[in-house]
Amino acid sequence: MRLDFEFGEVLAFVTVAQTLNFRAAADRLYISQPALSRRIEKLEAALDMRLLERTTRKVELTDAGRQFLNHAVVILEELDLARASMVERASRAKQLVTVACVPSVANHVLPEILRLYAGTHAGVRIRVIDESAGKVLDAVLEGEADIGISFLGAQNADIDFTPIRSEPYVLAVRRDHPLAVTTTARWADLERERLIAVSLNSGNRVLIENVLASLPRRPTIHYEANHVAGALGLVSAGLGVAVLPGLALANDTYPGLVGLPMREPELSRTLGLLSRAGARLSQAATALHDLVLQKIAE
């Protein structure tokens, strides 16, 4: 259905009806009196009825004018509510923070940080992208994520990489495994073990492969999983052992497993906070950025 009058005309009529004075109404609307008169005339023409009686001394509403005023006020109130609703929606959209991180951080570190963050930023919505280190880096570079938590990106000129802490790699074994009684594990020990590894697409695998390639006798990888969680499931089933980042066994998530720090050589990764170089974070994203720095470094 097409309306033959405009918002400005309805507003002009309501303002005149409230002031009963064309000069006062024109001043309130910041328009001239002739412009105000034209709006009233156009509205009356569209409705095909006279809404106001105007003399040199006073302005009065006609019966039709009084009836239309009731509807016009409701129209303006509804439009104002619609405007406020859209403003609120836009504000909520601006209060979205996206953080990309490797799965070990998403599982064992980020939940507690987000719990603390919600205490001071309850209105901010959070989107978590828990992916491999390479995909975390891509998400930050492409602007899909405001910040990232990963161990790749330090050498990328388009990334601001802030080191947070060094994370050692451990050998995940079942508690009933013979090695479980020791305090560390040597890479040479893996020759006699059925090794479980994460996918070649994983940043973890790249670091591990660099060490395996340097061993006199390379261990055989019997099982491969796309993600750390899958590898831990295979270890829990007694199918072998796996070299994984220490965070994977944090918070006693796998009580049946123990993590032995790798030695000869030691292997670690530097976990860092990523953001696009030169990008300006929103206030909400900056607050989360600072909280991540504070809590992961503890």
TrEMBL record:
This is DNA-binding transcriptional LysR family regulator. One of its GO terms (molecular function) is DNA-binding transcription factor activity. CDD domains: PBP2_LTTR_like_4 (cd08440). PROSITE patterns: HTH_LYSR. It comes from the Bacteria. Keywords: DNA-binding, Transcription, Transcription regulation. It comes from Nitrospirillum amazonense. The keyword Nucleotidyltransferase does not apply. PANTHER family: HTH-TYPE TRANSCRIPTIONAL REGULATOR YBHD, NITROGEN ASSIMILATION TRANSCRIPTIONAL ACTIVATOR-RELATED. Belongs to the LysR transcriptional regulatory family. GO terms for cellular component: cytosol.
